[in-house]
């Protein structure tokens, strides 16, 4: 007689082997697919391996207000839709025979994969959705299909330049979660943000190039790349600002400048090194209280020749949320008046339970509702949660 325990173990090992085989087939299908046919090749694989005959990728649009189907069809804008619940909660959502899975890579939320009909295989299908996210990231530079499909309308040229400049919209690691958003998303001009992380540090910069249209976007691009060049050369934060200042001055001779806030976070200790070069607003949410983090303002980048920048330091506490907003947020005006400090502080407190990407999305949606449409001035909002191990 066969030992039931041994039989069960054999079945479990066989199930695991079959799971790995199915995932390997999906990985190979994605890796070998033409860049513009990732979803189609994945759908063929899922039909054969799982009997799934309805596959759709919904990508989040630039405004974070709609989920747009790659294959055409209904745009999803209601937060109650199962696809949006999956996107917001970053979890599987089951709706009858359909299953919605987040398509996310290293915290970068790209959209949601809808599969139907589905029975079982929850964890392996979730991993396949993550594989798709990695492949989408890998091919974006070689095909416009996914970029175009994520737009609900045409971008202005300046906005095209700004979005191409971003390293991503969100990032997550065990020690932190970060997200940023630009508004008006389809016509942003000079406002932007940049970030990079390594083993023990996170660099975060927010920028606002003066002027309008392409001129503002070009100015911000120059400053961003100058800061990256200095950072990658191993320069300290103050020297990074000084090099970018020289680059902007060399091209514009003081007629144009960029307001910037440079932050470097030690991921182990919470020590923040900062350079405030005419920066946006910096707040910390700690234990339900909004704290204005005071920094000594220094000259914007490129305003004067040979400016020396001084570093300042402060500490985050475990569980702190850091929020950076540009003047386009505080100066938003409607018939009811100015959005202002009090309303912003109230929002930051009320949004504490939201993940950073949801928080910046909700803030800018709140602003659009406040002004009754798109913002007149550019705005950038960045949210960072620090949660050391």
What structural category arises from helix and sheet content?
alpha+beta
- Per DSSP, what share of the residues sits in E-state strands of 2 or more residues? 25-35%
Number of helices: 11
Kindly report the CATH topology of the largest domain.
Phosphatase 2c, domain 1
Rg (CA only): 23 Å
The main sheet orders its strands as 6-7-18-15-12-13
Q: Architecture of the largest domain, CATH level 2? A: 4-Layer Sandwich
Distance between the termini: 50 Å
Main β-sheet, in a few words?
6 strands, antiparallel
Helix percentage range: 25-40%
Shape: globular
Total strand segments? 18
| Mean pLDDT over all positions | 92
Work out the count of structural domains. 2
SSE ordering: HHEEHEEEHHHEEEEHHEEEEEEHEEHHE
Q: Please write the CATH class name of the largest domain.
A: Alpha Beta
Low-confidence sequence ranges: none
CATH homologous group name of the largest domain: PPM-type phosphatase domain
Descriptive notes:
The chain is an alpha+beta fold. It has two domains: 4-149, GAF domain (Beta-Lactamase), CATH 3.30.450; 157-386, Phosphatase 2c, domain 1, CATH 3.60.40.10. The protein is 38% helix and 27% strand. It has eleven helices and 18 strands. The protein has helices spanning 4-32, 38-50, 82-89, 122-139, 145-149, 157-165, 213-232, 237-252, 327-330, 340-350, 356-371; strands spanning 54-60, 67-69, 93-95, 98-105, 108-116, 170-173, 176-183, 191-197, 201-209, 258-266, 271-277, 281-286, 289-292, 312-315, 321-325, 333-334, 337-338, 379-386. The strands form four sheets. A six-stranded antiparallel sheet has the order 6-7-18-15-12-13. A five-stranded antiparallel sheet has the order 2-1-5-4-3, with helices on both faces. It has a five-stranded antiparallel sheet with strand order 8-9-10-11-14. Strand 10 (258-266) and strand 11 (271-277) form a beta hairpin. The longest helix has 29 residues, at 4-32. The model has no long low-confidence stretch (mean pLDDT 92).
């Amino acid at each position: 007689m066969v030992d039931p325990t041994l039989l069960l173990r054999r079945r479990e090992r066989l199930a695991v082997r079959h799971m790995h085989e199915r995932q390997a087939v999906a990985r190979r299908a994605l890796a070998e697919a033409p860049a513009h046919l990732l979803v189609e090749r994945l759908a063929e694989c899922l039909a054969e391996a799982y009997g799934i005959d309805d596959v759709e990728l919904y990508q989040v649009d630039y405004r974070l207000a709609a989920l747009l189907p790659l294959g055409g069809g209904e745009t999803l804008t209601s937060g109650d839709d199962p696809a949006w619940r999956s996107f917001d909660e970053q979890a599987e959502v089951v709706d009858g025979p359909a299953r919605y899975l987040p398509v996310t890579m290293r915290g970068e939320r790209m959209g949601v994969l809808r599969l139907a009909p589905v029975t079982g295989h929850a964890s392996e299908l979730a991993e396949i959705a993550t594989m798709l996210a990695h492949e989408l990231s890998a091919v974006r530079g070689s095909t416009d299909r996914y970029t175009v499909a994520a737009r609900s309308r045409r971008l202005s040229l300046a906005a095209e330049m700004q979005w191409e400049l971003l390293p991503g919209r969100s990032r997550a690691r065990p020690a932190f979660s970060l997200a940023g958003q630009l508004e008006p998303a389809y016509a942003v001009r000079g406002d932007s943000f940049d970030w990079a992380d390594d083993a023990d540090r996170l660099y975060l910069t927010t920028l606002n190039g003066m002027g309008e249209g392409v001129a503002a976007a070009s100015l911000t691009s120059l400053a961003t790349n100058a800061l990256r060049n200095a950072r990658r050369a191993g320069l300290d934060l103050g020297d990074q600002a000084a090099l970018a200042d020289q680059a902007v001055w060399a091209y514009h001779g003081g007629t144009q400048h960029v307001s910037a806030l440079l932050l470097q976070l030690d991921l182990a200790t919470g020590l923040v090194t900062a350079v405030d070069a005419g920066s946006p607003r910096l707040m910390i949410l700690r234990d339900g209280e909004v704290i204005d983090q005071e920094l000594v303002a220094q000259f914007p980048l490129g305003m004067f020749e040979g400016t020396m920048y001084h570093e300042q330091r402060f500490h985050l506490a475990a569980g702190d949320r850091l929020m950076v907003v540009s003047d386009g947020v505080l100066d938003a005006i409607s018939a009811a008046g100015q959005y202002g400090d009090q309303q912003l502080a109230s929002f930051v407190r009320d949004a504490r339970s939201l993940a950073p990407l949801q928080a910046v999305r909700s803030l800018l949606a709140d602003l659009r509702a406040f002004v009754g449409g798109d913002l007149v001035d550019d705005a950038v909002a960045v949210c960072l949660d620090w949660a050391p191990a």
